[in-house]
Amino acid sequence: MEKSSIDRLEGFVQAIPAIIEQLGCEHMRVPRSEGKWSRLQILGHLCDSAIHNLIRFIDAQHTSGRYTVTSYNQDAWVSAQRYETASVEEVLALWESVNLSILRVVSSIPEESLSSSQVLLPDGEIRTLLWLVDDYVEHMNHHLRQILHVD
Fold first, then answer.
1. 59 and 79 in contact (C-beta within 8 Å)?
2. What is the model's pTM?
């Protein structure tokens, strides 16, 4: 595994909880702009993404042939999870817990499986499991930057 993705994910899991706690509950609940998710809902979306990707990372290694990545309705998940009514602590604990599971799973995938396991993306592209892991971490980075006002 390209250590940079594991290292980045470990760094996020170690640093982000304290940073989000410093932002405060009210700041996390305010939508970034009209019709957009609040920072808390973005964090919730990252929880949903983690849940789906944990399943993908496990299933892709144990599928004979090409693993098909299915998409999910992100807005429906954020709405159904009702993150806007949850506490920041609850959503943050979920994010941290699922990402710790992802770290355990991804760290134990043999290098050969990462580079040889193929995944079929919803748009028809064929990539490797390594690409899927790297993309997951990059997706998280994008949304963490939104939460922290970097973007």
1. no
2. 0.93
